[in-house]
């Protein structure tokens, strides 16, 4: 039987170019370091995807729809729903993406107009650990749902850029919650077992795993919308693990001789022609 989403938040849609390191078929997911202002490279290892974060850096999750229809994304960080703060489950509320549009998820949703920033932090200081749920620290996931198709669909206009901010529609009321879907199996970041050097392994273990903290608040406006799921099970589940660079090297995810992002020579470091001295 088809399920109807409960309280859903329609994200402001922003057109953006495709990301080379994106992960996903229906929705591209990338992680962008807001402190260093660079997209984090994605490393594939043993069938899993990883990114390396740096403690203290703010980050955002960038989503881009690859379909010509609206889609629902139930997004979790460290096993916690980023909208409700509940332990993540497929049947919960999520963000609705417009056709071929992109959106940036900046943090934990506090209201229709505000979020608390995502910030890389030591696992004990993560939001999940501080709320008594440390078991799934170190993983970002999104369950993607396609909409139930209408018998006589209305013509859809060509995708257009949406305003950067929208006002919440106070007339919109939450619908009834969807029946609980089977919970996804817990996915934990693998332990450090494959070290390039004993010293590096010891350093990685001493530092401990990386999690996502509850950072400062900032403006991020969304509004309520309706969405009817085609089924109770997601059409795609995307999983990206993250940890410190040192721990990922120790796990064998990143080659030890690979330079960190941003340290390679830049062929275009300037912007304009300066006056000669």
Describe the structure in your own words.
With 277 residues, this protein is mainly beta. Helix content is 7%, strand content 33%. The strands form 3 sheets. Strands 2, 5, 6, 8, 9, 10, 14, 16 and 18 form a 9-stranded mixed sheet that branches. Strand 8 and strand 9 (80-81) form a beta hairpin.
| Secondary structure: number of strands | 18
Strand percentage, roughly?
A: 25-35%
Q: How far do the termini sit from each other?
A: 74 Å
Task: Give the low-confidence spans.
Answer: 1-7, 12-20, 151-196
Count of separate DSSP helical elements: 3
Main pleated sheet: 9 strands, mixed
Spell out the blueprint of helices and strands.
Elements: E1 3-4, E2 8-11, E3 27-33, E4 38-39, E5 43-45, E6 48-53, E7 58-65, E8 71-77, E9 80-81, E10 95-97, E11 102-105, E12 107-109, E13 114-122, H1 127-130, E14 139-145, H2 198-207, E15 210-219, E16 222-225, E17 228-229, E18 236-244, H3 245-250
Parallel strand pairs: 2-10, 6-18
Antiparallel strand pairs: 1-17, 2-16, 3-4, 3-7, 5-6, 7-11, 7-13, 8-9, 8-10, 8-14, 12-13, 13-15, 14-18
What's a concise summary of this model?
The protein is mainly beta and 277 residues long. 7% of the residues lie in helices and 33% in strands.
